Amino acid sequence: MVDHLAQQVGVPTAPWAQYDWDSRTIERHRAQIRQHVGFREAPVADGATLVTWLCAQLLPTTRRPDHLKEAVAQRCRALGIAPPPPERLDRLIRSAVHREDTRVGTEILHRLSATTPGQLQAFLEAV
């Protein structure tokens, strides 16, 4: 793949093997690439916005991680933000699932009659 891309843009491939992937230079290069393609790095607030969006738009209908990850990637492209790294994306999805589960559980709890929680507790203790 590197050879193919290097041929397309007319550059040698040798520097690829010598590139320092852990340096501050890569951060600068990533920023230049994001600027060139019209994306911005996602701050923490964008993560919270993505969690809210997941809860409202996707989690009521699907919990499949592959669908959620792809949907977040598409949402990030639509918003012009760089998608979060895989570890952060997993944390955002877990956070959204937890938030939605808590919301649904609370909604169900509020719909129960006053005696139902005690009856459920008695049933669980008997099991």
Your description of this structure?
- The mean pLDDT is 89.
- Helix 4 (44-57) packs across helix 6.
- The longest helix has 26 residues, at 86-111.
- The protein has seven helices and no strands.
- The chain has 127 residues and is an all-alpha fold.
- It is elongated.
- The relative contact order is 0.08.
- The chain has two domains: 1-38, no CATH class; 41-112, no CATH class.
**Stretches with pLDDT under 50, minimum 5 residues:** none
The rounded Rg comes to 23 Å
Please, how many domains? Answer: 2
Number of helices: 7
Helix and strand content put the structural class at: mainly alpha
The termini sit apart by: 59 Å
Shape: elongated
Number of strands: 0
Largest sheet entry = none
Q: Mean pLDDT, nearest integer?
A: 89
In terms of DSSP E residues, the strand content is under 5%
Concise structural overview:
The protein is an all-alpha fold.
Strand and helix layout:
Blueprint: H1 2-9, H2 14-18, H3 24-37, H4 44-57, H5 65-79, H6 86-111, H7 116-126
Name a few traits of the molecule.
mainly alpha, elongated, 7 helices, 2 domains, about 130 residues
